[in-house]
User: What shape does this take?
Amino acid sequence: MTQAFDFDVVVVGAGAVGLACGYALSRRGLVVAVLEGEGHIGQGVSSRNSEVIHGGLYYPTGSLKARLCVQGRRLLYAFLDTHHIDYKKCGKLVVATDESEIPQLEAIFQQALANDVEGMEHLTGAQARALEPGLNAHTALLSPESGVFASHDYMLALQGEIEAAGGAVVVNTPFEGATPLAGGGFSVRIGGAEPADLTCRLLVTAPGLSAQAVAGTIEGFPADQIPAAHYGKGVYFRLAAKAPFQRLIYPPPIHGALGTHYRNDLGGQAVFGPDLEYVPAPDYSVDPAKAAAFAAYVRKFWPDVPQDLLVPDYAGVRPKIHGPDEPQPDFLLSGAETHGLEGLMALFGIESPGLTSSLAIGEEVALRLTA
Assistant: This one.
């Protein structure tokens, strides 16, 4: 006798990646429930980022980050157009501020070509300054496919697509654990004002910062297959003055992150960040005293930055699965071949470029679960 399930799929986490997974699975005719413990969608990692659409320049050949960032970017622009969501394909300059950084820029250029990133150009310092007067650039790379977008409107559109396909996105509904069923599928325990159990054939966990804690509540998930959780805090400062540049401005990457960069957001305001600080637990405070360090860093590519006009803005925390002295790993999409639980896909370490990659991550998850 065939098991009857309450839903074909339960997705844990209604951030950009969880919603994109729900969207991809609902497009395959499955009835999806996305569970979110917070009172609104996108209140975790997805609400505290740069809203940058990444070109896909940096990521190692053959990695999920390289493939899914480029694929995700292409899917994302098409989705934004179809759903009339605001974005600016403003382009990005990766800037070498002195001769010592030129080899790093050349390595980035070659990696971008290997990753099939379109339209990459070498620029002289004079060419970069012609595009962005006031910029300190010895040389630069131009990535015309990079941009910024309204990420919350994007998540609302994903929610709408899931619901239009007969699914549900349910907030104030924390996931409390799951048990594999004898005939396949899962019994899922949910909390909140009305605790309940429900059943599903497929289970996807994409809860960002709580990925490890969620995996630990799934019966039979091997503890040695749950990666260590690390929290990479990054703060942002807003410029209380006219935005100096139209394009994204990035210095060469730092160890473990892309480094403090500049963006002109959709409202026309200049924002710098994030930096990177490993913290023992999520912490969203912004120390105003960091303005001096920000100004010193930004001064390398914008010598005229006025420190007294850098205003504390917000902080985000990235769900890292590596420590400060460890190499940056790939996205981790953990399926039955890893943990032995058929029908479960657990996502870990979905930090940058997770937002850009989200639609492609959703497609990858759907493909692996339904192939």
